[in-house]
Amino acid sequence: MVDFRLYGYQEEVVQRALLGENVIIWLPTGSGKTRAAVYVAKRHLETTPNAKVMVLVNRVHLVEQHYSNEFKPHLGGRYKLVAVTSDSEVKDFFGNVVQDSDLVVCTAQILHNAMTDKEEGKHVELSDITLLIIDECHHTKKDSVYNKVMGSYVEQKLKGEGPLPQILGLTASPGVGGAKILENAVNYVLQICANLDSAIVSTKNHVLELKEKVPIPIKTFDIVDKRPKDPFGDHLRKTMQQIHEYMSPPPYFRLRECGTQEYESDVVVLELRGVRENNRVLSQCALHLREYNDALLINDTLRMMDACRSLEEFYDTKFTSAIDTTDSFLKRTFQENRVELRKLAGDSRYENPKMSKLESVLLNQFGPNVQSRGILFCKTRKGTHYLNDWVSTNEALQEAGVVASAITGSGNGMTQNEQKHTIRNFRSGALNLLISTSVAEEGLDIPECNLVVRYGLLTNEIAQQQAIGRARMRDSQYSVVGQAAGQELRREITNENLEELTGKAVAVVQDMSLGAFRAKIALLQKESVQSRRAAEYLNRQERTRNSPGGTQLLCRNCSEPVASGHDIKVIDNTHYVNVNPDFKKRYKVGGQVDFGKKFDDWEPGRKVLCNNGQCNKQWGYEMNYKGVALLPNLAIKNFALETPNGRTSVKKWKGVPFPVDPFSFEKYCQDNFD
After folding, report:
1. Full-model pTM
2. Helical spans, DSSP H, in 483-635
3. Among 67, 76, 527, 673, which residue carries the largest CB count within 10 Å?
């Protein structure tokens, strides 16, 4: 076991935790919050009879990271530690694992599943834990799994049930939840404190030491003027107008300006309305308008050729067949404009000026004999790949020695192993630029950088602070590339004001008398419990409003009825499968699905596609369960629901208006093999 000492500011923020109080430690990214938590865990294990420490994280990759890099080196020699994820075989006996271990690092979902699973050997009570450490605890709000765990904690506390574990939360920024005035910001921070049943602590006596150990990067606003002409974007808008005119009658409300997030929100609503009203003209046109709007957004941020490629990928790979005249019109409209769009996209006179500014920002930090390491943040997975392609084909950047790779969240086209491999290469120096979505803002164990660039991002103050915290080297640069008077710059300045407001709100909360603080927290907790019970009641009412057999699932694309709600069963509260053997007549299979990892009880099979004519809408994929059952695992977002109260649609299975029974493997075998 490696011994270690804390910096003064770390010692200051852990004092109340060492006395057994529930606290949230608020320190910036890179300041060693996790190291402080390891110290608290060590002292807790040394001084608490029958101690049981659990460390909760909100992303799978953080389990191994915290286990291997922080807790095991300092505690592994003396205590029994275990890391558990959804990929771990021991997750099915999590209750036994907790009983046999001194410290467990796991995802919050693992603990929540164990709290709701009453089977012996799997079940875990909060009373089994003596110290609960919650990483990135600002996510403990609304319907997050953190808040579900802490919701149970608060209910037990209010009922006087116990014992309950000590809580230690860790965050780089609690945020203000969109508040614009101090009173509302204070209320938001108090709500986070109530959700975690904790006070919030930060350093007051060692601020200078904290600034010395965690230097603030030099911030630059790298501004470009709006391009004087944009014939490519104009042609996209002209094509969109053709689709607007095809929708007759026109939409029920006025669509906002093309090429904005607001327009995207409008066409999402329009598509849902088309599905619910069985108006395929409306729903299909809305889907295609969203693709054109996405191309406009790409044109505003990246290269014209990237925007053109985005549309071509959609029409050449995802929209390959037409099942009615609307599809024929939409495909024909694109084909008629394709040549002109390609021609305009290749005209360098009208290229996006943000790209040349981004090039100069990178060249300012990178050079043939310069040891630099940077992260370029952009909004979308598609954007990371386009930017990576641009870097790899840009002669000036290649001569400067820039070696880049895109990194996105697991489940979004990148496996956890691919993530680890990319970060290893970045750490070793084989790569010196990561082009990332928000996945690299918090959590990932990324080494110190001397350049962080935010490019085309509109995020909140928490994400901004997480990104700033990645520029940890001395004299590092934090660059915001954007258009003069553009949304990115306005948002960045707003976030600066919100982060300042966060500090003021936290200070107000910290200055409250202990009695006033506890009274306010108790009131907020009672209100939260009442609201949660009311929401659960309404949800139960909604889910029992219709019988499973009285609800039909319709293909989201062609509206063909394909299944009954009665056919759907749920495996492990996660996988919603169709158990009706006749369902095989409704679908055909496509390519093999590969998640880049193995699962204990099942493995993915081939894609499941609608078999109605030329539809080919992907519904999900087949899963081979326990090597015996080949079951279609369906995503409800790919279906419309026909109920006695009319047609509707939901994004997630938990929103369906009928109850779904658990899958019985025994009954399945009896029905199919006896």
Report:
1. 0.89
2. 487-511, 514-543
3. 67
